[in-house]
Amino acid sequence: MNLITQATALIIDDEPDILALLQMTLERMNVATKTASDLKQAYQLLQHNSFDLCLTDMRLPDGNGLELVEYIQQYHPKLPVAMITAHGTMETAIQALKLGAYDFVSKPIDLKNLRELVQTGLKLSPFAPHKERRSRYDLLGDSKAMQQIRTMIAKLARSQAPVFISGESGTGKELAARLIHQMSPRSDQAFIAVNCGAIPEELLESELFGYKKGSFTGAHADKDGLFKMADNGTLFLDEIADLPLNMQVKLLRAIQDKKIRPIGGKQEIAVNIRIISATHKDLAQLVQQEGFRHDLYFRINVIELVMPSLREHPEDIPLLIEHIIYKLSPNHLINLTPAALKSLQNYSFPGNVRELENIIERALALCDNQTITPEILSLKEPLLTNIKTSKAIPNANQPPPQTKSEILLALEQHHWNQTATAKALGLTLRQLRYRIQKLELKK
Predict the structure, then answer these.
(1) Is residue 130 part of a domain?
(2) Count of beta carbons in the 10 Å neighbourhood of residue 201
């Protein structure tokens, strides 16, 4: 929001009553408004004015709001835009988020939700004061893979869309989730992380949604659940694949309705949270095996962030080692012999960066003369399989697909889940990513 002039929002809706309601609500928030009743008027206003925020209805006389979202992403990429959707059209809302809308509000419009949506949007405005963000020093690596991850995190921070973070154990999924939160308009609110696989099944509902006094034996007082604790902030659901099916149903409803009901509660409580989820498991495969609900997968996997394994960016290993040593032993000068560094760079790291940290910590405890040697590292590859060669092997009778149309079709069939697509095509994840980049495939 411009510090000198009043914030201005562009509102597009062809219903006079809705338009008047939106204008009145925003002006009471000290936000000036300009209005349009169709796309043509909206385009003209965007060409001749600067805005801090845009709210657009989905259905317009000369097109739909999704067209406007795409136009803004192309010609005004820093302008936050939110979608107004009809009740129950969740697919449309998710499509808007994928195209670049930062959030959505459903009709009939809840004024509290609308005000929160506007406040969030103004924090994303190109004229709003920005805090210094130095994710470069939180998610280390100069490789192309890590540069792309940091760029993606910066983009995701501007959106309120649910994010699904996939990747092997130890690749930094929770760190990525925290960075998305820290760089977002919600950064001054709570970041609540929960490991879904670490909570006993019988306690999951009470932990997530809370309970009322007397609702069960031992409930001596009201208790807020994690959803309530994360209100206005971010809830990170780690290892979401471990949620039992009955809890998946309740989680889906809470995410879609943005409301929760504590155990023993008579009324639902509105919550305004951003959901980020993660797992090291193949969630798409679990959906096919009916171990994870398709509708919940569709809802949480609006945008996927794939964290690369350490094997995919070994050039970052020296920098990571330097950082780990300084963090663990800041007052001591520790050296690695060239042979020790080479052995680390040749190691497959099934546990990724987390395993690298454990290896260095153990080596620091064992080295006597402040020098780490291969003998101290004592690296051993996994006995059953070498991680470097454990990926899917192409079918000898059917060569891996090379054409753009073949790969694009497979990606669409698997909802652009690269892990599932690579597996179906008989490619390694690296091979698939190379083809996507080479063929310039885009979602």
Answers:
(1) no
(2) 11
CATH number at residue 356: 1.10.8.60
Helix (H) or strand (E) holding 105: strand 103-106
Question: How far apart are the C-alpha atoms of 138 and 72, rounded to whole Å?
Answer: 31
List pLDDT tens digits, range 374-399: 999 988 766 434 444 333 333 333 44
The mean pLDDT of 364-373, rounded to a whole number, is 85
pLDDT at 217 over 70: yes
Q: Radius of gyration (Cα) for the chain, nearest Å?
A: 24
User: pLDDT tens for residues 419-441?
Assistant: 878 877 877 777 787 778 777 77
Q: Is residue 2 situated within a structural domain?
A: no
- Let me know if residue 61 belongs to a domain: yes
Q: Is the predicted pLDDT of residue 208 greater than 90, yes or no?
A: yes
Sequence length of the chain is 443
Q: Same domain for 232 and 366?
A: no
Query: Three-class SS of residue 344?
Result: helix
Distance set, CA 410 to CA 104, 318, 398, 399, 423 (Å): 30, 37, 15, 15, 10
Task: Say if residue 353 is in the same domain as residue 405.
Answer: no
On the 0-12 / 13-18 / 19+ scale of CB atoms within 10 A, 80 is buried
Q: Please indicate, yes or no, if residue 277 is contained in any of the structural domains.
A: yes
Top-confidence residue, 238 or 366 = 238
Crossing angle between the packed helical segments 173-182 and 144-157, to the nearest 10 degrees: 40
For residue 35 the two structure tokens come to 């209005």
Domains: count for the chain: 4
Q: Checking DSSP bridges between strand 103-106 and strand 81-85, what pairing results, if any?
A: parallel
Find out whether 92 and 58 touch, Cβ atoms under 8 Å: yes
Lowest mean pLDDT among 64-68, 183-187, 378-382: 378-382
Q: Identify whether residues 273 and 349 lie together within a single domain.
A: no
- Amino acid 185 reads P
Residues 31, 24: Cα–Cα separation, whole Å: 10
Q: Which domain holds residue 211?
A: 135-306
Give the end of a domain, one of 342, 363, 383.
Answer: 383
Alpha carbon distance 308, 429 (integer Å): 9
